[in-house]
């Protein structure tokens, strides 16, 4: 079988490795090359405990204040408000209690698969030396903030996620010294894993895929054309046919699916960060400031401070003030932090309204498989997604029920 995977981010390269290991003739095509997008500068976390979708019951009562605050954890540029309105309507529907519970269940299933698949990937591609198994602290300002988080923690506990509750600043300091004492409560997740550098990790997986026989090319794909058998990609040099085409182009995926008539509610969580030089702070573990929407993580280059969600599409200019807001907060929350010498970055995280990725056959187009929309969990869910897509290419049933991730949940059509 000849398969073209569009996209050389973490989803695309991991899928290439999984498929090539099974004997599939894989060609990966990306307009810029490996790890050129969101896989380049993210926080580098495998956040398997993050099973709670963004659309939680009651969020639309709180969201307007966030949307209107350019410094808040969830914002919308005013010029993008009308464009994002249909997405927000679906987001509101996804926050209904029944849909929320279904999303948590689906997210937990994909996390379980992805955690197990990651360990298989690490062994098969010899990647252990690129990991940090240092755990994570999620910290809260006072008991009231912690109590507000308890329903979500109960969902995590029910999903089998192991964590410890800390209710004293002294207990927090035993794991991570230097956090301001205003943070009195925390959740410690000891099994949390980080990569030493997300771009290096993506390149390493791509190299493993090459070793398994995958071929990588750089080209701008202008369209996908369904065929009676398979599908074709159209580039500036012409048309090339494959038995299957996998769309794993992240935030640009919907622009490609529109070329064969499929529109899906994909938008972008524009994420911002600042990477500080080594020595800026003695970080022992990944720290999440949950109520402020950002994290602090160790990477090869030093310390990375970033996160937040800006629903702003692909075309607006970056608002790097978002990165500076998080850096300013980090300076206050970590009093010993040296904020000088940082490098700012912005990436496009592909986001669906229900926080679940799209994984499955394109409706009515049997030659095309979709694998995108993972939001800020692309790295986390990459190995599980790759195994699911490889199963689909084999004509086998995936290890988990694929229905919750099917594109037909938005179209109402039946997948081919």
Automatic annotation (TrEMBL):
Stored SUPFAM superfamilies: FAD-linked reductases, C-terminal domain (SSF54373), FAD/NAD(P)-binding domain (SSF51905)
FAD dependent oxidoreductase domain segment(s): 2-392
Pfam families according to UniProt: DAO (PF01266)
Keywords, comma-separated and alphabetical: Oxidoreductase, Signal
Signal sequence segment: 1-18
The keyword Signal belongs to this UniProt entry's keyword annotation: yes
GO cellular component: cytoplasm
GO terms of molecular function: oxidoreductase activity
UniProt cross-references to PANTHER family, sorted A to Z: GLYCINE OXIDASE, SARCOSINE DEHYDROGENASE-RELATED
This protein's name: FAD-dependent oxidoreductase
Lineage of producing organism: Bacteria, Pseudomonadati, Pseudomonadota, Alphaproteobacteria, Rhodobacterales
